[in-house]
From TrEMBL:
Annotated InterPro entries: Sec10-like, Sec10_HB, Sec10_N
Keywords, comma-separated and alphabetical: Coiled coil, Exocytosis, Transport
Protein name: Uncharacterized protein
CC annotations in GO: exocyst
The keyword GTP-binding is annotated on this UniProt entry: no
KW Transport (keyword) present: yes
Coiled coil: none
Stated family: Belongs to the SEC10 family.
Gene source species: Caulochytrium protostelioides
Length: 753
């Protein structure tokens, strides 16, 4: 049976718990009192020991103060002692110097008195005492020399002379000892006497002895200018083995002797500088002057070629000598400046005041003129021929024929001069007034050679302007005097050609040659001129303008030449058509099958000649579009000319129905030959021309049907009317038929509009 909550509360007794809590609380109070008592005892002990602690701390502070004061006093005392010791040392040093100076002065006075009496036993004793004695004797003699120069007392002249005499003898003795060590290659003795002589007189004498006795100058005393035997090539390079070997010997000698100089001389960089100055000023300059003078006597081209070679070799030597392993930066700067100054001094007579540039420009101009010599001769003869041709007379005609024959015989050789010209080969294009790629290549090579020499011999800041001047000279000769003049002469020949003779197309070969030369010039400009002139904007702009002006001028003359050639073709076609009988198409008998008229055959034969010449001279390689464009444009113009000539020619004829068959056969042949050109626009025109021929074949009642069909339907009635009038039966047609047909054609035109 479960108990209720009220019953549980009735059974709970709190007294037991209260007793437990009371006992526990009493124990805690006892523990609290015990702990508090201990705390109080500790606080009492601390309070009792505080005065003693403070007393001890005060004692420690006092002791520390006394110790610090003692250390400061000790330090001050030590400093005073040190200063005193330093002062004592300085005084002792001063006293020692004074004693030494007094001793030396005593010795100097004694030696001076001895020398004044003509004796020098003390100095000899010092010298016999070994290296240290020799060094001391050298110092003593140097000081005596200074004293003798400064002191002005009685009887000093005798001592001064004695000192000078002994000084010279002593210097000779030391130099002899150095020379002996040099011959024995004893570096220790060489260093010993080099230092003694440096202290004695600054070392100039020993340096001079070492340089004078050097084997390099001994071997170069017999050096003479080598004979100039290199081939004289217009754009080629020259070689000079002797000069090259001389520079190589100088380089190897300096690098080999640098270690010796470092081991022997106190200041090796200055000794090397004097040695290099001597090599440049004596050996190299003398040889350079001799062989450049010989080159100038040979030719200006030889001179500039050898000058360029010498400049290249010598500056290569300078760059190599800069790599000597110098100890300090100051030595490196000193030697670099000295080398550059020596090299520049060698070329001052040749490069200063733009002497080289003036000579190079004159030479370049002369070489370009020499390259165009054959062409210029032809031009001169052409000018004379044009003048004589403008004065028609028997005498002038005879002179013209004789002069041109004589000129051509000098190029090709006639029967009389066949033996003399057997070795000359065929006539060059220049000799016929046609630009030659080989000549242009030669001129470009000349420009490259001049540009290389200019790059080597001209300061970097002046190179863009100099290269622009050379390029301007190249444009003047290659462009104006060569390409443009050749095209102008060809145009003059076409203008003065005999129109009663078929054109020869002799001027066409120069068009692909000119285009090839322009492409070569463009490549040359990009690879040779632009890299140099691009660093200076005005020069680059001027060079680009020169090139563009030349290209524009040449293209203008090419177009003019093609136009004149086209006029010649047009004139000859007109000449052939004018020879045709006006009654040739008025026949009443049936013509022979597949037999065109003689005029048509002549024109077709001439057209095939035209196409052959154009294909031969204007087709060009697959990667050259300029000539192909010229060819296609010229062929299109020839086709249009023929088309219009035929239209005008038909208008002047009277054509019968049977003659229309012959005309249609001619037109079909024209259409066939034009179709071979594979030019759709031109083929379409001749298809219309072919259909135009049917106007003369059909019966009158079918005429208007033909007009309204095919290509003729695109032609206006007013244009077709003159061709209809050429029908032989046009006058026989009734007025009604003619008006009706014309009315239908007009209505057709209106509807089409």
């Amino acid at each position: 049976m479960r108990s209720t909550p009220s019953a549980a509360l009735a059974d709970f007794s709190p007294q037991a718990y209260a007793d437990v809590f009371g006992a526990t609380l009493e124990q805690l109070n006892k523990l609290k009192r015990t702990i508090q008592g201990k705390i109080n005892n500790i606080e009492d002990e601390i309070a009792a020991g505080e005065p003693f602690r403070r007393q001890k701390l005060a004692q420690l502070q006092t002791a520390t103060y006394h110790v610090q004061t003692a250390f400061e006093g000790l330090e001050s005392g030590l400093a005073d002692v040190g200063n005193t010791a330093v002062r004592i040392g300085e005084q002792l040093e001063t006293i020692d110097k004074q004693r030494t100076r007094a001793s030396e002065a005593t010795d100097l006075i004694a030696i001076l008195n001895e020398l004044n009496t003509g004796r020098h036993g003390q100095l000899d004793a010092l010298i016999d005492g070994g290296p240290a004695g020799e060094s001391r004797a050298a110092i003593m003699v140097r000081r005596l020399s200074a004293i003798a120069r400064e002191v002005d007392v009685t009887d000093i002249d005798r001592a001064r002379k004695a000192i000078e005499t002994y000084s010279e003898a002593l210097e000779k003795r030391f130099l002899a000892s150095f020379d002996s060590a040099l011959r024995e290659r004893h570096l220790g003795k060489m260093r010993q006497y080099a230092r003694i002589l440096t202290e004695f007189n600054g070392g100039d004498s020993v340096v001079g002895l070492w340089i004078n006795q050097h084997e390099f100058f001994m071997n170069q005393t017999k050096l003479s200018a080598e004979r100039l035997h290199s081939p004289l090539a217009l754009g080629g390079d020259v070689t000079h083995p002797t000069l090259q070997q001389l520079c190589t010997d100088m380089n190897e000698t300096c690098h080999r002797d640098w270690e010796t100089l470092q081991a022997v001389f106190p200041v090796p960089s200055q000794v090397m500088g004097k040695f290099i100055q001597r090599m440049f000023a004596q050996t190299l300059q003398n040889y350079l002057e001799n062989f450049l003078a010989a080159a100038l006597d040979r030719s200006p081209l030889y001179f500039v070629q050898h000058l360029t070679l010498a400049h290249h070799l010598i500056w290569r030597l300078v760059r190599s000598l800069r790599n000597l392993e110098l100890v300090s930066v100051n030595d490196a700067a000193y030697l670099t400046n000295l080398l550059e100054r020596c090299a520049e001094d060698l070329f001052v007579p040749y490069l200063d005041h733009q002497r080289y540039q003036i000579l190079e420009q004159r030479l370049f101009k002369a070489l370009l003129g020499k390259a165009l010599l054959v062409f210029n001769n032809y031009e001169a003869m052409h000018v004379k021929a044009m003048k004589l041709k403008n004065n028609p007379s028997k005498k002038t005609a005879a002179n013209l024929s004789a002069q041109m024959t004589a000129f051509l015989s000098t190029l090709t050789g006639d029967k009389a001069s066949e033996k003399e010209s057997a070795n000359r080969g065929p006539t060059s294009p220049d000799g016929r007034g046609v630009p030659c790629v080989e000549t242009a290549m030669l001129m470009l090579q000349l420009h490259i050679a001049s540009a290389r020499r200019c790059h080597e011999l001209t300061r970097k800041g002046d190179q863009p302007r100099a290269h622009t001047l050379f390029f301007k000279e190249l444009i003047e000769h290659l462009g104006h005097d060569y390409l443009e003049r050749a095209l102008e002469m060809a145009i003059e020949d076409l203008q003065n050609a005999d129109l009663t003779v078929a054109p020869t197309f002799a001027q066409l070969p120069m068009i692909p040659a000119v285009n090839d030369i322009l492409q070569l010039l463009q490549i040359h400009f990009q690879h040779t001129v632009v890299p140099v002139v691009s660093s200076l904007a005005p020069c680059h702009r001027e060079a680009v303008v020169l090139r563009n002006d030349l290209v524009a001028a040449v293209e203008f003359r090419i177009n003019a030449l093609l136009s004149k050639q086209l006029d010649a073709v047009s004139a000859w076609i007109d000449q052939l058509l004018s020879k045709q009988r006006k009654t040739e198409y008025r026949i009443t008998e049936t013509p022979e099958p597949d037999t065109p008229t003689a005029t048509c055959q002549a024109i077709v034969a001439f057209l095939r000649v035209v196409f052959s010449k154009l294909s031969e001279h204007l087709a060009g390689p697959a990667n050259q579009t300029a000539d192909r464009e010229n060819q296609m444009a010229f062929l299109n113009s020839v086709g249009l000319l023929l088309f219009h000539h035929l239209l005008d020619h038909v208008k002047k004829l009277s054509i019968s129905c049977t003659g229309g068959l012959l005309l249609a056969r001619d037109f079909a042949l024209y259409h066939r030959i034009m179709s071979e050109l594979d030019m759709p626009a031109l083929t379409e025109r001749f298809e219309m021309l072919k259909e135009l021929g049917t106007l003369y074949i059909v019966k009158p009642e079918n005429l208007w049907t033909v007009i309204n069909e095919g290509h003729l339907a695109k032609v206006e009635a007013q244009v077709l009317f003159p061709f209809l009038q050429s029908r032989l039966d046009w006058s026989k047609m009734s007025q009604y038929e003619r008006d009706l047909g014309l009315q239908k054609a007009v209505m057709r035109d209106r509807e089409r509009r």
